Structures are given as structure tokens and as C-alpha cells.
Amino acid sequence: MKTPSYHALRINSKRLKRDFDELAQIGATISGGVSRIAFSRDDLLARAWFSERIEEADLILHDDEVGNTSGILPGSDPDAPSILTGSHLDTVPEGGRYDGSIGVLSALECLRTIQEAGLHLRPSLEAISFSDEEGSWHSLFGSMGLTGQLDKPLKPLHTEREEFELLLERVGLEHRTIWNARRDPARIAAFVELHIEQGLRLDRAGLDIGLVTAIVGRCTYELAFHGRAAHAGTSGQTERRDALLGAAVFITRVHARIREGYPTGVVNCGNVQVLPGAFNVVPAKASLLVEVRHPSQAVLADMEAFILRLAHDCAAEYGLTVTEERADKREGQPMSPDVMAAIGLSCDRLGYSHADVHSYAGHDAQMMGRITSSGMIFIPSVGGASHNPEEFTRWEHVEKGANVLLHTILALAGCP
Amino acid sequence: MKTPSYHALRINSKRLKRDFDELAQIGATISGGVSRIAFSRDDLLARAWFSERIEEADLILHDDEVGNTSGILPGSDPDAPSILTGSHLDTVPEGGRYDGSIGVLSALECLRTIQEAGLHLRPSLEAISFSDEEGSWHSLFGSMGLTGQLDKPLKPLHTEREEFELLLERVGLEHRTIWNARRDPARIAAFVELHIEQGLRLDRAGLDIGLVTAIVGRCTYELAFHGRAAHAGTSGQTERRDALLGAAVFITRVHARIREGYPTGVVNCGNVQVLPGAFNVVPAKASLLVEVRHPSQAVLADMEAFILRLAHDCAAEYGLTVTEERADKREGQPMSPDVMAAIGLSCDRLGYSHADVHSYAGHDAQMMGRITSSGMIFIPSVGGASHNPEEFTRWEHVEKGANVLLHTILALAGCP
Question: Packing angle between helix A243-261 and helix B243-261, nearest 10 degrees?
């Protein structure tokens, strides 16, 4: 049996690198990173730049009602559901050059490579950039819009709804029509996303590729410890109801016990705000932001119950009370065995080392996975740096990742 | 030997109560407390009200360059140094009706009582209300001005110097002349202050009077723990440098170890501010406000060294660094044995139970003690409530405190 000629197909690494360097100029910061906050001027400039690349490549430019931007390579069968691939162009403030960008640019590069090779695939291919993945306004806004998962009315996490709607109008989106961005799941065959790992495992193990088996679920709480304000000099040390002391005990214990009891899970205490907050007043209130993540839905629910119990125990020990408010909960998303198989096959064909990994960060693939077969390809992050200007991935790994993406798309499109 | 007739002298409790009730109306809050922030409209109204009471009593009204207000009962010997007594009329925001007020009103009442009794004492007596004791702008401003201890230029703790100087001008004080408020220590014989305890000891022990032996020293630090921001999902739990975790460990240990190692000292961690402060970012920086108090200067210095060492130890354990900034240091102030003896004598004469106590709060007597023989009389605070509207002292104890103040003044003025 003769090996099909497309097995030898490779992306154009120089062209991809040129795109990467150009894009990194948009919103470049003096620290060597990038700030392209969703819907900011630089984010819109990056979207315009991406649209130009799409048109330059003779792909069909498609914009939708939530600010997603796609380049489409039409397939031979207009009835065949499309294969989508991509990521996002927005960044966190003072972010890095790789997060999101690599997935979008490699998607575009794969479509150009397939087009140039004259391969006529049955399904259409679509390279997509999702809007506000980082959640500067609304976490995973573009992929939630496309998959029909936005709340109606909108519930942006970090801003008032009215403010967000105004913003959408300012960038040319009509907030009353965002619901039209929803796609018919029957028209999508699969989604695959290339992304940097944002962790240390691949880099430390010297592996080329991470084959993502699941994106972890995440649950966030605001836990408020309530004590009693008192004069810090005159109130006896043993009679105080010190809200910050209770919160501090909780912080130290939750780290130790999650590590001990849930080795696959992670916890973070990201902030604490104290009232009244003076040198000489015993804290009356300490409000803590806590987040737990785990790939298993059942274990995540167990962790959630555990942190609440622990908070109440710590509070009781120090004469405090606790009020809790769940800020957000997002279930984990297992990746599709079909897409995982296509990724593994591609790695083997290309001779790249790989290992199964969980994604501990949220991604657009998490939303896409709710409506279609989805998968993710990770490439190493040197030193695990993420969400800061030091983010770096060796170009060799970017190239390998893009080639795995290429062959995964081919496999999913019926070219095994 | 016949008992002198002035031994039977008592203050006019009804008149004092009427004054107390009137004053409590100025800046009264709906919660039953008082807000008379230094130099606010209500603070100025209280000062005007006090001035009227002074003139009504035919005492000499005296204002100085830092906003202190006094009523003077001239003595028979103009060369004899004066005896000062008083406290402050300003309060913390949403404070109580007793803190400061009781000391000022009782001082006035003692002068009226002595005047009415026709006692012609050798020294002049001065009932004084010090400005901004609570430090809304500059802690102990009035008593530091009178005792010549203000920094030149001014160093207000909670505001910019220019802003504070503007404020002084607005309330009719010329900021260039505040240094003239300094009194010649040779013109002052003694200072005595009546104040609520703001703690639980007297109330719990069922005692009438606390004889203050020393006002504790206080040392405040801003301790900043520095780690590294990282993605809370993707960075390994054991590889993080979590600034808040280090700070939390410090908070729990400093409380336990100060209680263990320095039973007479107190510690408070009043606030912590976290950067960047998001659910999903490992804290890069946690800035903690820490305060320690102790009556002994040597032990306070030892506690200061101890908390810094502990902070560095906690930081090292969690891969962090610490930067420290001393916000303030105020040495403790032992009270004068002569004034203490006069207070003790008065209690015994009146048949009131009393015990020696430390003052864990700062008071104007701390500043006065730097230049003259000073003492303090404490009366019980029910439940120890302080700096809040629930502050309460039974009137019986106010009356007893005012009578102890009266007889202490008499003893200090040469009427033993």
C-alpha cells in the first residue's frame, strides 16, 4: 500500500514566523510582551490584520455577531459539516506573544498549506479567532456565543451588563443580535485547537506535544469571614474575633489539604480584602477569592464541598462566621476520543514525542466541546511562563505543533 | 488632726450629665454614636459649645495655634506652674459618646466645683481639649503641638502635608505659626487625664478605677511579601511562589508566637492588600499592615526584631522575599509616680476600688508625659466596646472617675 502524498505535507514555517512577528507588533509592550485587551484598539487592529491575511490568502472572510473572525476554505461538498480550528488573538494585560496567537496563526497556515497543495477536501475548513477568550469583559465570549451558551441577558463577570453592551456597540456589534452568532451544531464536524501548555510538564519532560485528554472544571467562591472590629491595643488577644486571622488559617490549611487530598486538583486564593483595614483595628471582615480546579466533575463537586466545610471549621475555631457566594462554576470538558486519536496518529506519523495531559486552564475548546467533537494540541512553554511577557516557546515546537494540527485536520477531513 | 473640709468636696453629677447629654448631640449618628472627625464641622461645633461652657463658668477661655481649647481657673500665685487636665472632643468616624468627651467634661466640672467651693489654690488649673487626638489627620496633633513634638515640616500619617496645611487654614489656624503652640515645660506642674478603659479588665473584675502605670509603646510596619504571579490553573502547586500564602502563614504564626512569647504585648495584622488580586492568578505581592505594642521600650524593640525575623523566615520557607517599611514608632510612656500616688490616695479617700493597669491605647497623656509629670485615671467600659457606637460606661463610674480626678487635682495643687 502506497503512502498517500499528503503524508509528506508540511506547513510553511517561514511564512508562519513572519505572521507571528508581525502580529506581535500589534499591542507590543516595552517589556517584550503584548497587551491586546479584548475589544481594545489593539485587539481591533489585530482582528483587521488577521482579516487582511485571510483575504490575501483568497479565503472567505466571515465575521459574526459576537466578534469572532474566520477565514474559510470551502470544501467540495457544501452539505458536509465544517471542521473548525483556531484560538484567540486577545491577551491579558501585559501578556505574552504566544498565548492564543499561535493557535489562530497556525490554523490560518494550515488552510493556506492545504489550499496550495491543491487538496480538495470534502468538508469546508474554517480558521477562527474567538473574541475575548481571556475574559477582560466576558470570559470565552466568542466561543460561548458561537455555541449558544451565553446567558440571556448577558452576565459579564467583571463589569456591569450595560457597560459591556455599550462597549459592544462601540466596536460595531449590536448587542440585541449577539444570539444570532449561535451555529447549528449539525453544521460542525469537529474543532481542534493548538495552544501553548502554560505549564512546566512538557518543557521539563523534554516532550514535543501534549495530547489534551480533558480541560479541567473550575469553581470559584467569594468567602467572607465575619468577626468584630475592635481596638487593636485595648482588646485582649484571646477575646478578639479577628476575621483576617481566620482567613489566614483557612488559606494555609486549604493549600496543605488540597495538595494532600486532591493531588490532581489545584487551588488558589487570589485575593483577600479586609475591613476596616487599619493598623490599629482588629479586622471585622476578610473577603477571600478562592478557586478550585479538577478534571473530574465528581471530584470537583467534592472539592467544592470540602473548601466550604473547611471555611466554616476555621471560622468556628476563631469565633467567626462565614458567608459564601459562588462566583462561577464551569464543568470540566473531556476531549473527543476521535480527535485525540487523530492527534496521536499525526504525532506518530511525524515522529514527534507526545504524552497525555490535562489542561488546567480554560480554553475555547472547552466551549466547543459542548457541541462538537473537540481536541487540543499543547506545545511546551519554556519555564512554564504564562500570562506575562516572559512567555516563550521554541520555534521548533511551534512548527511541530502546526504540523500536528495540519495532519489532524487532514485526518478529520477524511485523509487518514 | 481634723480632716480638711475639701475632703468632702464632690463634683456636680447632674450638671456633668447635662453637659454629657448636650455634647453627645453634636455629631450624633443614627446608630447612637458620634462622628466628630477632627476639624470637621461637628468638631468645630463641639469646640464652640465647649468655649461657651467655659465662658458661662467665668473661666478664662484660651485657644492656641494647634486648635487646643482651654478654660483656665487662675491660681493665687501667678508664678506657680499650672496643673493641666483634659482629653479630647474629636472622635473616630462612627465612634462612641464617652471616648475623650468624659475627660474634657470632667476636667471642666472639676474646675467649676473648685471655683464654687471658693477654694483658692496656689497654681492655676487648666481644663483642656486637645485637637485631633484620634489622628483623622495627624495623631495626637494638639498634645504634640503643645509639647513641642511636631515634626517640622509636618508629617501627617494619613494625608499629604499640603492637604493638611490647607485644612488648618480653612479652620482658622495659620500653619506657619503652629510651632508657637509649644508651652514652656517649666510653666506646667502636672497633667492628669480621665478616660474610659476601652478594654475589658476593669468591667470584668468589677473595679471602679484603673490607675494607669504606663502607656504602651507602639510600632507599625508595612511588610510586603513578594512572590511571582502565575496562572493559577497551570502552574504546579509545589512550584508556586505565592505571596499571599507566605503572608497567611506569617499572620497565623505571629499571633501564636506573640501570645506565647510576649504575654504583656499585643499584635495586630490590620490589613493585607494583594496584587494582582484575581481569582485565577497566583498572588505576586501581599502587603501586610502589622502593629505591635508593649509597655517596655526594651521589650518593644525585641518584639520589633522578632516580627521582622519571622517575616523573613516565612518568606524563605515559601520562596518569597520581604521588604519592610516602618510606618511609625512611638515609645511607651511610664506615668509619673507622684501623679499615680495622688490618684491612689484619692481613690482610697473616696473608697473606690482600683487596680494598676497599662494603657494599650495611645492618649494625650503620652505626649504630656514627655514634658511633665503625668497620670491617667481609667473607668470601666462595659463589654470593652471602643471606637464604636456601643461604647458605654455606667454613669456611676463616670461620676466616680470625675471625683477621683477632682481629688487628684486638689492633691497635686497642694491640698493633700
Answer: 120
**What would the 3-class secondary structure string for B324-388 be?**
EEEEEEECCEECCHHHHHHHHHHHHHHCCCEEEEEECCCCHHHHHCCCCEEEEEEECCHHHCCCC
pLDDT tens-digit series, residues B274-296: 998 888 889 999 999 999 999 99
Residue among B251, B258, B253, B261 at smallest CA distance from B286: B251
Q: Contact B386/A248, CB-based, under 8 Å?
A: no
Q: Which of B271, B290, B333 to mutate to test the interface with A (most CBs of A within 10 A)?
A: B271
> Which residues of chain B lie closer than 8 angstroms to A271, CB-CB?
244, 274, 277-279, 283
Which value, to the nearest 10 degrees, does the dihedral of the CA atoms of residues B172, B176, B179, B180 take?
-70
pTM, rounded to two decimals = 0.84
Closest CB to A245 among B252, B277, B359: B252
Distance CA A242, CA A240 (A): 6
Q: Across the interface, do B249 and A249 touch by the CB < 8 Å criterion?
A: no
Question: In chain B, which residues have their Cβ closer than 8 Å to the Cβ of A239?
Answer: 200, 384
Best of B202, B222, B231, B288 to disrupt the A interface (most A CBs within 10 Å) is B231
Structure-block grid coordinates of residue B57: 463658668
- The amino acid occupying position B103 is G
pLDDT digits (tens, 9 = 90+) for A32-82: 999 999 999 999 999 999 999 999 999 999 999 999 999 999 999 999 999
Q: Which residues contact A86 (CB under 8 A, 6 or more apart)?
A: A70, A103, A104, A107, A126, A127, A128, A129, A130, A193, A364
What values do phi and psi take at A113, rounded to 5? -65, -45
Q: What length does chain A have? A: 416
Rounded (5°) CA angle B72-B78-B83: 45
Instruction: Dump pLDDT digits (tens) for A341-354.
Output: 999 999 999 999 99
Contacts of A30 (CB under 8 A, 6+ apart): none
Q: How far is B157 from chain A, CA to nearest CA, in Å?
A: 12
